From TrEMBL:
This is Alpha/beta-hydrolase. The keyword Hydrolase applies. GO terms for molecular function: hydrolase activity. The lineage of its organism: Eukaryota, Fungi, Fungi incertae sedis, Chytridiomycota, Chytridiomycota incertae sedis. Gene3D superfamilies: alpha/beta hydrolase. The keyword Hydrolase applies. Signal peptide: none annotated. Keywords: Hydrolase. Residues 76-287 form the Alpha/beta hydrolase fold-3 domain. Pfam families: Abhydrolase_3.
Amino acid sequence: MVSLRTRIFRIIIRNYFNINPIVHPNLVETIKKINVKGLKDINKKGYKITRKETDNKTRYQIITKDTNKPAKKIIYYLHGGAYIAKLTNIYQTFTIPFCDLRDDIEVILLDYDVAPEYKYPTQLNQAYDLWKVLTKNYNPKDIIIGGDSSGGNLALSLILKIKNEENVSPKAGFFLSPWTDMTGTGKSYYTNYQKDVQMGEKNSPLTQEKFNILKDSEIFCFIGDANREDPYVSPIYGDYTDFIKSLFIVGSDEVLLDDTLEIVKKIKEKGSNNVELINQEGMFHTYPIFYKTNPESKEAYEKIKNFIIESFE
């Protein structure tokens, strides 16, 4: 049984933040209007947020404690939002506490260009561009990569690309409800459709006709003409041999539940026991981000912080 706060929050999400394109046909326009409200940096005493660009014009933000201590460890975080939403201050709020875990941690937030104006491989190219900039000054083993939803997709794709092109890996990775399968093969699309407060319909089951509408909708617009089975588009098709230490967190009521479960299964099948899965009963998409709202999210958030501490030991 989930907490009362979570039950209330689920109602709020279903009523005000549902992004099912069948229910909301003008999805891109709606997301971009909501997105504008969160583009201003937060002002939190004791921390500094700096906006920068690489030589290739890849935008990013640096979050540090307001001290003179040099950073030695990096949390490189990739935000979600179906590749349609821009980087908002929600992610500043989410990641600032990571700076308190050690005296030498710095958070990097990639501010990638969004769809439908910018499609694959724009976001992956920008993520890799920033990785190359970071690793000029930091050892890959001093970097943890994280991401949620489409940012989880991008984080996994980036890790696969780094390994394929450089034969190196970051220290570890954490992934919150990663969107890993653009072909939509997971049965959870159907079994969780009426439970999912963000992507479902409460009183209407998912039919094959509706599923086809979803797959061809604006929610998938970042793909463009790319092959949906390309591992950099759908990381579920990637090779997870010798995958890094990893933490996956997902809610049991998500349509994307199987997008996580299948990845974890693949990692374990390749012989790695260095992967942890939290499949939280009754929870919704990317629920740890709302750690200030309900106890289940706070518990998951504490798990992420412990994972970071343990990975950097």
